[in-house]
Amino acid sequence: MNGFIKDFLHLLPAETAHNMAIWGLKKYPALLDIKTKQYDILKTKLFGLEFTNPIGLAAGFDKNAECLDALSQIGFGLVEVGTSTPRPQAGNPKPRIFRLSDDKAIINRLGFNNKGAQEFSNNLLNTEQTNVKIGANIGKNKDTEDIAQDYIYMLDRVAGNCDYVTVNISSPNTPGLRKIQDKEYLNDFLGQIAEHRKALETVKKIKIPLLIKVAPDLNLIQVEDIVELGLKYKISGIIIGNTTIGRQGLVSSNKNQQGGLSGKPLLDFSSNILEEFYKLLRGRIPLVGVGGVSTGKDAFNKILKGANLVQLYTALIYEGLEIAEKIKHELNQLVIAEGVDNIQDLVGAGIK
Fold first, then answer.
1. What's the structural domain count of the chain?
2. Residue 213 DSSP SS3
3. Considering the domain boundaries, does residue 298 fall inside one?
4. What pLDDT score was predicted for residue 8?
5. Quick check: is 138 in a domain?
């Protein structure tokens, strides 16, 4: 049934298919028939949280936290929802999602379309409790001038209703957003966020792991700057990375569409940046590897290059809702073959 639904959705325009998938998962979560299995060797402790496995769904699929009950049933160890902004916004003009089927990739220029903080936080609050960890990915409205205040507002709205928060400063579809990754801007930005995070802990007694999501298009100087400031402001984790503006090696007809590219073409590219972060950090800040993951071997290689957790999104579109279970099964076998007690013993093992 899940395979039939996937094939049917691929007959529709990309954004129509996405909206229909969200509607179906929200309205009929009980119809999911995916048998999930837990593997002790994949259990992961990070940020003070216990994950049943290190495979997660990246932000972007469920922007408004509408179908978390369904997404928590299909085998992921973590599900990240968003990006959500303080005020609702429509995003960029349509069409704005394009399949690159021959490349197993997607280009999107959505522009943080979402229903806003109030609905997002209410949906988080009303989600049934599961053993799947929930992350809230937050951003800014397109027309906001005081950028940090949007993130502070969002942090207030979601802290306490999720397991961790991701600060998205790397989408290529919101003008000026990636500028925050430059050292001068990032130092001031993270300083304000860190100060408010400390206030949440002291006044409201809410201690929330705070991650930042960066682009895979960084140069080595930017990587060094982000590492320096991440340590300075005690960031809990770094997600590497968001979609890319690069277009190397694509063959599909939609390859020149404007927007961020995700999927298989990012696998090696994003893993190389992940490796650079790990070489500098060596475990001092946990890393989340994202980009092009569709198999257990892909996830395994991300972990060898320094990822504590691994996320995917585009593979869910091309491979279907069973993707997490397939990856976990393959990953379990690969880890057993290494003769270690737990998958976290292999983090960074592929880097000299």
1. 1
2. strand
3. yes
4. 83
5. yes
B/e letters for 278-291, b = 16+ CB within 10 Å, e = fewer, are bebbeeebbbbbbb
Give the active site residue among 72, 171, 236, 270.
171
| CATH code, 192 | 3.20.20.70
CA 128 to centroid of chain Cα atoms: 21
Residue 285: name the closest of 189, 212, 221 by CA: 212
Q: Does 171 qualify as catalytic in the annotation?
A: yes
Q: How confident is the model at residue 9 (pLDDT cuts 50, 70, 90)?
A: confident
Tokens of 137: 């990915």
3-state DSSP of 99-138: EEHHHCEEEECCCCCECCHHHHHHHHHCCCCCCCEEEEEE
Residue 293 sits in which domain range?
A: 2-346
Task: Categorize the per-residue pLDDT at 28 as very low, low, confident or very high, splitting at 50, 70 and 90.
Answer: confident
| Residues paired with 105 in a beta bridge | 100, 263
* 2: confidence class by pLDDT, cuts 50, 70, 90: low
Residue with the two structure tokens 């379309």:
113
Position 351 in a domain: no
Is 352 within the bounds of a domain?
Answer: no
